[in-house]
Amino acid sequence: MAETRRTYCGLCHPRCGLLFHIEDGRAVKVEGDPKHPISRGRICARGTLMIDHLYHPDRLNYPLKRTGERGEGKWERISWDQALDVVAQSLETLRKKYGPETLAFTHGTYRTYHWDGRRFFNLFGSPNMCGANNICMCPSQAVEYTTYGGFAWGDLKKTRCVVLWGSAPSKSNVILLFPAIQERKKAGMKMIVVDPRRTAEAEMADIWLQIRPGTDLALMLGWIRIIIKEGLFDRDFVEKWTVGFDQLRNAASEYTPEKVAAITWLEPNKVIESARFYAENKPAVISWGFGIDKQGLNASQSARARSILRAITGNLDVEGGELLGWSDPVGAIIDFVVMELNEALSKEQRSKQLGAAEYPFFGFPGWEMNLQANKRLPSHYMHPPKANMTSVAHGRAVMEAILTGKPYPVTAMISLASNPLLSLPNTRQTFEALKSLRLYVVSDYYLTPSAALADYVFPAASTVERDELWLSADFCIACPKGVEPLYERRDDYQFWRSLGLRLGQEEYWPWPTVKEAFDHRLAPVGLTFEGLLERNGLFGKRGFRRYEEFGFGTPSGKVEIYSSIFEKLGLRPLPAYQEPLETPENALVKRDYPLVLITGSRFMPMYHSEQRQIRFARKIVADPLVNLHPDVAKNLGLKEGEWVYVVSPRGRIRLKLHLSEAIHPQMADVQHGWWFPERKTSPSEPFGVFESNANILCPDEREFCSPEIGGWPHTALMCRIEKA
Predict the structure, then answer these.
(1) pTM for this structure?
(2) Which of 149, 243, 253, 480 is surrounded by the most beta carbons within 10 Å?
(3) DSSP code per residue over 178-208
């Protein structure tokens, strides 16, 4: 029997529509769904991998209990009930002995529902959820809430100018964002690209700024100085709707074009030209970019400066500019923060959040300030800040607590859709910490290097095996599963609910299935999951300049150029550039490590540390690569395709050399997320996780991290290349 089913892809962030062609109950072909209201039939190379992913022989299909040494690869198959009973009993024993804060969590990036995990942890009593939040969009979310009370999304359909700053959608968002940029560029949209690499976007740009990694804040402050000095700011908006403009003028005064050029490796005339170009082509958009959040020391203040640029040029909440808030009636859908049940976690337990004393803005203290300021706005207009994204424990503090028992013992950890050995810096410390746990539980698609160290492993249902809501500021779409979960795979809601029921949380999990939880969330707009699916999505009507009615969700009700929240937390209320600790400006560092290191760049069809098992994906990108300018390789006596070592002060990794003139001659661009599922695991190095893992090169010491959020650097470091 043959049939076609609508489903969706979740192998990266967008939930693009898929059609599954089914024969005798098995998916045999996948293609884009032309009726999907957002992706409209387009899928990328990742989407074409979905059937291989669904039926891959290495998928986890049953719960497993470790029987050998951690990492040895010896397992015993057990039932879900057996595994959950033992895990729940162990957690209860550890909670009674050490307190609920003894349990920690690492999560991944949007493969799971997220709110359900937060709900479980709040009810269990632990504030110690961590992951890659400190370096990926979450810092920008938190900073923008502090500056103007919400996260801004660029209106590409109507903008006259887009600034792609540390963003390459040709590699990271190839179905939605990149085609939209191409279409708008053909229609006359202006474009600035700020990126150290000559990307496809740089080739399209009116102005390309090949900036030195880690110096973006200096350029932003240079732009602010020029815009203020030349009167290119929106005087009416600044006078009525901002606080701290005069302080900003003083703070930016030292960032002359000459000073900025010397810091950023740009020409002074390029600094001036680009600032004018952005300010004079309104409405304009500055994109969010991973390249900003991952640069360490200056990351948080760069996000602040970007927010300030949007505000003083009058681009906030105008058609074609930076849109704020939720559209009507989409904003009425019950939001993630309500579902997280943060009120269940007591003040006493919140105070135990690891890392919050050092980075209070990105812990409960800062989140609570943002939450309180947000209450001046109606929730259907501006949802509160998600605790799951903007109030987390710090990864370094969690790992140190596991290893040292200070400030208290962390003895248990759960990882869902998370591979901390590939997502956190200081990989060897993370490795030692995971091995030291009394209880380590993982739920994932495959046996990853991190999962190889677990005591219990649960098989996770992939996106086409579970239902989901795709909720954006302007739409909500029902994403149906294409097949029932194979073998004994389950979605993460079932994992958390089943564990919660065993730990006394019965009254807080009233929905037996996640679809019923979705029905609850959709109730305010009079829909169910099935009803939403039948109407092919709910789309809102966008309003503009709504701050004129509601104000901004900040303590002052205005855009806080001078941040009162930062000031109360003892942080710099205005941006100021700091030269990174590891820099080419230091002659001693440059002597031994002459190249600026970039890691974390996206590349197709891989996504972070995923897809390494899939044959077609490895056919496209077979080996881990370091991209280097041909002239540099020639001087080093190296050739295309040779294996080389990339060496930093923290260690070395082995990669294959790829020559490209897209890379600045003083930089090296290293692919991230590499491990080798085709190899045997071992207790000392599961699946070769240390050999080519870029995070070996990346530090997490305090002096490298942003003081506001604790974001560690994956770029703006130094390295050298040696023949392997």
Answers:
(1) 0.96
(2) 149
(3) HHHHHHHHHTT-EEEEE-SB--HHHHH-SEE
- The 10s digit of each residue's pLDDT in 145-170 is 999 999 999 999 999 999 999 999 99
Q: Which two tokens stand for residue 113?
A: 């529902």
**Which of 341, 335, 337 is closest to 124 using CA atoms?**
341
Over residues 699-709, the mean pLDDT reads: 95
pLDDT band at residue 602, thresholds of 50, 70 and 90? confident
Residue matched to tokens 């077609």: 616
C-alpha pair distances (Å), 646 with each of 165, 361, 587, 718: 26, 35, 20, 10
- Residue 197 · residue 601 · CB < 8 Å: yes
pLDDT tens track for 305-341: 999 999 999 999 999 999 999 999 999 999 999 999 9
Spatial contact of 531 and 112, defined as CB atoms under 8 Å apart: no
How does DSSP assign 247-312, residue by residue?
A: HHHHHHTT--HHHHHHHHT--HHHHHHHHHHHHHS-SEEE---HHHHTBSTTHHHHHHHHHHHHHH
Identify residue 66 by its one-letter amino acid code: R
Residue 631, SS3 per DSSP: helix
pLDDT, tens digit, for every residue of 506-535?
Answer: 999 999 999 999 999 999 999 999 999 999
Length of the chain: 724
Cβ(665)–Cβ(265) below 8 Å: no
Number of CB atoms found within 10 A of residue 512's CB: 11
**Which residues in 404-428 are b (16+ Cβ under 10 Å) and which e?**
eeeeebbbbbbbbbbbbbbbbbbbe
Domains delineated in the chain: 2-43 (no CATH), 79-137+327-418+495-510 (3.40.50.740), 153-323 (3.40.228.10), 587-723 (2.40.40.20)
In order of 27, 56, 134, 287, 617, the CA distances from 53 in angstroms are 11, 5, 29, 31, 11
Q: In 615-662, which ranges are E strands?
A: 625-628, 643-648, 651-659
Q: Tell me how far apart the alpha carbons of residues 551 and 115 are, in angstroms, rounded to a whole number.
A: 28
Angle between helices 514-522 and 492-502 (to 10 degrees): 100
Question: Cβ(629)–Cβ(663) under 8 Å?
Answer: yes
For the chain, percent helix, then strand, then coil, each to nearest 5?
A: 40, 20, 45
Classify the phi-psi angles of 149: left when phi > 0, otherwise alpha if psi is within -120 to 50, otherwise beta: left
SS3 560: strand
